[in-house]
Specification:
The chain is mainly β. Helices cover 0% and strands 54% of the residues. Strands 3-4-5-6-7-8-9-10-11 form a 9-stranded antiparallel β-sheet, with no helix packed on it. The chain starts with a strand and ends with a strand.
Length: 158
């Protein structure tokens, strides 16, 4: 996973050390979801910090984590529940989220390309929606901390 993040209207500043964030992340599925068990994933955002790179000064979103998720289908649509735990791991300091985090994504039965998201990233609550106009692209629109507008464009590798 590669991610580039920059807050609009926040200038790059040497004194506050705010720089747009670039990071390479990895996810490893430890357990596949089945009828009775949730999936388990180990993730590492900003893996370059393990190798002592200079990214520590510009990293805002690093986080090693485990996440458990389970999809539940109903006659209304599909609920995708997640709960995780982020922690410091080797030289990668958890900054994006730390401790317990989680959320739910609901995809209505009638609108299978639209999902509604509500989550807690251990710092605050975020909400929004995701739309998949064409596979493998999705667009997300939401409110970060229920205040700041956020937009993302994602290319999903399967």
């Amino acid at each position: 996973m590669f991610r580039y993040s920059h807050e609009l209207n926040v200038p790059v500043n040497m004194e506050t050390r705010y720089f747009p964030d670039r990071m390479l992340g990895f996810r490893l599925k430890v357990l596949d979801e089945n009828k009775h068990l949730q999936s388990v994933v180990f993730g590492l955002q900003d893996a370059s910090a393990i190798f002592g790179s200079t990214s520590q000064g510009a990293t805002n979103y690093s986080a090693p984590y485990f996440v458990f998720s389970k999809k539940i289908s109903t006659s209304y649509g599909e609920f995708d529940w997640s709960i995780g735990y982020a922690f410091d791991f080797f030289s990668v300091i958890a900054k994006d989220f730390k401790g317990i985090f989680g959320g739910v994504m609901f995809t209505p039965q009638a609108l299978d390309k639209l999902s509604f998201v509500f989550e807690n990233n251990s710092k605050g609550f975020n909400t929004g929606f995701k739309i998949n106009p064409i596979e493998p692209i999705n667009l997300m629109f939401g409110l970060w901390d229920l205040k700041k507008p956020t937009i993302s464009i994602n290319y999903v590798f399967y």
